[in-house]
Hints:
Blueprint: H1 2-9, H2 28-94
Amino acid sequence: MPKQWTQVYQPIPGEGRTSRVTYYETPQSTLQSIDSYTNVLSEVKETLLPILNEMDGKVVQPSMDMKKALEGVAKMVKKRHHKKMDYDRFTASVFTPSYKWV
């Protein structure tokens, strides 16, 4: 990403004054700001990358393992719910008010 910023603000080869358009060079202060931004970004990357990798091992991976473990439980709960609905439908059809005990 930082290289893209420097490429955007670098002068285009062959650009100059044409009959209709005048091109201006990027001010030196802007180029220095881009260089300092690039340096800060690389330092932040070096600092945060180990922390993020550590976080993956401590947070993300256990969360994924727990998600896999709970998939079976969710499947069982869904199956139980369907069986309960079938049972409720059956009991509602058998024990209607019009049902006469023999």
